[in-house]
Amino acid sequence: MRLLLVGTVIMGIIMLWRYLRKTRRRKKRTTPFAIPSGVTIEPIRLLEEEEIALYSLLQMAVQERYLVFSQVPLWSFVEVEAEATVRSDLLREIALKRVDFVLVHPGSCRVEHVVQIERESSPLHQAERQHVIESVLNAAGIRLTTLQPKKSHTLPDLTTRLGITAEE
Predict the structure, then answer these.
(1) So what's the pLDDT on residue 30?
(2) Which of 26, 103, 140, 157 is 20 to 30 Å from 39 by CA-CA measure?
(3) Helix (H), strand (E) at residue 116
């Protein structure tokens, strides 16, 4: 009798917890998005001067072989298949990481190559960020090329670094 009573109480608590969780989720979804008063939002530059020059050079180097996109979030071009908690943890880790340029195959619409510009931020932060990006790209089989931001790149040099040949 006592065991039945304990079981009923536990089941009631679980059902109440599930109900409250669903209700809380519904409330979040029904409130429309609004920018709070006093908040100012303005557009900013997507690329700096040297990045614009490199973007143009990349476009010339890859010509019709690839589409070139800049400032792409890492999570947007990889698919993570794993158990729910592992997947959530990995997506949380890569959520705010983005790559400088992606080369997308126009037929398959998949990223085949990533071009990163070395940043002049704190070495620890940069190394950790770059390690996450490199690990994800390596696991996905996506090639990575890292370039110096201030260096003047030539078209032949860039095509060689990207591994693009004339017969491709």
Answers:
(1) 63
(2) 26
(3) strand 111-117
Question: Is residue 32 domain-resident?
Answer: no
Q: Tell me if the pTM is above 0.85.
A: no
Average pLDDT over residues 30-41: 87
Q: Up-side HSE of residue 2: CA atoms within 13 Å toward CB?
A: 0
Specify the number of domains making up the chain.
Answer: 1
pLDDT exceeds cutoff 60 at 40:
yes
Average pLDDT over residues 108-112: 95
Helices within the chain (DSSP H only)? 2-30, 49-62, 84-94, 123-140, 155-162
Query: Would you say residue 62 lies in a domain?
Result: yes
Q: What angle do CA 106, 165, 135 make, to 5 degrees?
A: 65
- With H, G, I as helix, E, B as strand and everything else as coil, classify residue 146: strand
Q: Is residue 44 part of a domain?
A: no
134 falls within a domain: yes
